């Protein structure tokens, strides 16, 4: 098994997409496009990303939706299954699947990603997620109410350590705090270690990323906050003699002119689904009064789950580059209201400018 790519700091800015694996995509609104949770839709989006020369496609894992008038994410596909199919369909783009560590045994995941390594010819990656939204897992009897936030990360560190041993050793015996393996075998091994990425803004999450991952997906209230988070996680990695790349999500509302894009943005936000948005925020652990009060702001923004850039091609390119330059991020995972309409236009009219500036 060969190593992951070395010295990520020297690489150009990466641009990828967050696939709409759940119905409604990433905008929680009755007046926005409403992608269905279908393989056909995601396949076309991934093939377009591959053709345009984007760097990666990633999908989330989601096991329960947020209801509301839009039944947001009431229908979802399974990430690893879908990304394996997309690995076969695509030729160049990296394919990153999401795994909830509290749902899948490490020996099972080791075998699945060794298989995905072959299907993708070494293009696969794993988004490691420490399951945190109780109702997603309590419905299956898979929620550990006795686990604290830090316990879940300690569990996941042991889980990931075993996965990586199974990727490189012919036999693994381990008697840990959470798992027992006796002469556990998982061959063939991957040709190269799958790329490991993870998200989370807590100190425990950032330390986990710094210690184990190739990529860190960050969130913050503003661009200075993203820069601070990125510098912090990179410093934590450097303390361990490691380096990693930093990413954030960004929604792109693109049209022929700034005025047309602004009108589209306002229309998409007009029908924001307050009930679904509140339910999502409750799943984060916010108190009901705070979750509900947060939906009382600018409705055009309430429908969107990420930072948004809005405009014609030149304006969007300028805003995206500002996002990268002011934060020091190594990449962006992009979201579109309608991937099948918006992604080709982005690839033709915006991406060349972004690549020229990388």
Automatic annotation (TrEMBL):
Residues annotated as domain Luciferase-like: 14-330
Domain of life: Bacteria
Cross-referenced InterPro entries: Luciferase-like_dom (IPR011251), Luciferase-like_sf (IPR036661), SsuD_RutA_monooxygenase (IPR050172)
Biological processes annotated in GO: alkanesulfonate catabolic process
CDD domains assigned to the protein according to its UniProt record, in alphabetical order: Alkanesulfonate_monoxygenase
Gene3D superfamilies named among the record's database cross-references: Luciferase-like domain
Record flagged with keyword Protein biosynthesis: no
Any one Gene Ontology molecular-function term assigned to this protein's record: alkanesulfonate monooxygenase activity
Keyword Disulfide bond: no
Keyword vocabulary terms for this entry: Flavoprotein, FMN, Monooxygenase, Oxidoreductase
Protein name: Luciferase family protein
